[in-house]
Known about the structure:
Order of helices and strands: HHHHHHH
Distance between the termini: 99 Å
Number of helices: 7
Structural class: mainly alpha
Shape: elongated
Helix content: over 70%
Radius of gyration: 43 Å
Number of strands: 0
Amino acid sequence: MVxxxxxxxxxxxxxxxxxxxxxxxxxxxxxxxRQDMSMAGLDSDLMARSSKIGGVVFGLYFLAxxxxxxxxxxxxxxxxxxxxxxxxxxxxxxxxxGAFTVGLVGWGxxxxxxxxxxxxxxxxxxxxxxxxxxxxxxxxxxGTGDDEGGAAEAxxxxxxxxxxxxxxxxxxxTTAGKVDLGKGADTKGVEAMDAVExxxxxxxxxxxx
Length: 209
């Protein structure tokens, strides 16, 4: 299906974002530390440490989002409560960053943010909470031939089709019952005809007397 590859793509994109944001903030912290720069009188060492700490925090945050999305792809289930909170916050963050990057960076960055936003929202809505993942066990059937044989032995009944299965190989004469039934039907018909013929004779005898 289409939804599982898209969820895998979302997990890969979030993992790349986690690594990219962590490396970018770490690099900016190193630049500030080596250049000994200051902004509005702030300590350069404090700025460098803040940038590195921010890179680690945001990297771990996006890594957790990637792991949550990866679990959705593997289990084929919607994320749990914690994972849902992570992905919703990540979707909101990408929507806000997309709005900010239009004027600061350009439409290319906005398009990238919207694609990631769409992938995260799709991950949240791809699987129904009532679904329990792939079905491992086969559906139960009504019974097997062994069960029918056991029931026949216990109850003294023969399953349907057993007479046909016996057939000519079993050596039994299966036509005897049919012949007897035919003879019984013929004798009953003859007796009925004799009774009809005797009724007028009885009536004539009664009128003569």
